[in-house]
Amino acid sequence: MITLLADGREDTIEGLVLPYGTAVLGWERKPHGWCRGEACLPAFRAAAAETDEGVDLVAFAELLGRQAVADAGEGVVAVGEPAPAALDRAPEFGPLPGLRGTKVALVFWASWCGCRYDLPAWEALHRELGGHGFSVVSVSLDRDPGHAREWLEGLTHPAVVDADGRIAELYNVVNVPTVVWIDPDGRIARPQDTMTATDTFRSMNGLSSERATAALRRWVVEGESGADSRELRAPTAAERLARLHGRVAAWLLRAGRGEAAGRHLARAAELAPHDLAVRRGLMPLAGVDPFGEEYFRLREELQAAGIPIYRPLPDWQEGA
């Protein structure tokens, strides 16, 4: 038996080749092809994933534009999200559909980041600007929801924990703090930027929270985001694949299979060395202090390679 990690769920399948008559990622086989609702994959295209025994799950996922990472030896396969079709629209999850008609600051944070101390400031902005049709939605990248729980106490804005990394995948988030501005129509007003709400770690990140929050207030009240681009920065194929290796590694770590998880973490680091949401974000599950020597070695590695920790550098950087 194999655990399938896809669409925010864990399911059990008999193998990587699924017998005919079985729904595959929600798609069902019909005489003219494979269909999910009104969408259909023609039979002549689906044939590339079909065998005498059944449907090759990994090959079928690729036909749908979804990458997959399979570790048959460890009994797990992860299937990613499709490549984003519209970068100007905010991918929906959790509370977002219910906030249509409201401006949203989507705030990515984690308990393993000093940005956890910014949550009360984000809550204050949520309350201050709520009368202008504005809401904060915070997304914790903690792989263990319990690590985020204490930091969420007393908050009134919508908050979710992205334990499987799916939301970070949808928004191409490689580090925290990252903030995305979403307009009332569900379109991107400002893409993934490093943004702080306090100056607690200004000496490390060189960012002015005063400039950033002033820009946010102007957007909420006056409607001008000041952004050069209003599309999400698209992930590369390597970044997407790295996140799937990270998802498999997280599953293996929870199962106590550290050696196998290490192989997937190493592959993720090769594919996307800059993705701290994976490389640092999985340290707590591995029993590694995300504020300790391992993290500072990682910082030195990235700095030596010329890879910025906070990127892209927004217009509220000091000296901008």
UniProtKB/TrEMBL annotation:
Gene3D superfamilies: Glutaredoxin. Residues 84-218 form the Thioredoxin domain. CDD domains: TlpA_like_family (cd02966). InterPro entries: AhpC/TSA, Thioredoxin-like_sf, Thioredoxin_domain, Thioredoxin_ResA/DsbE_sf. This is Thioredoxin domain-containing protein. It comes from Planomonospora alba.
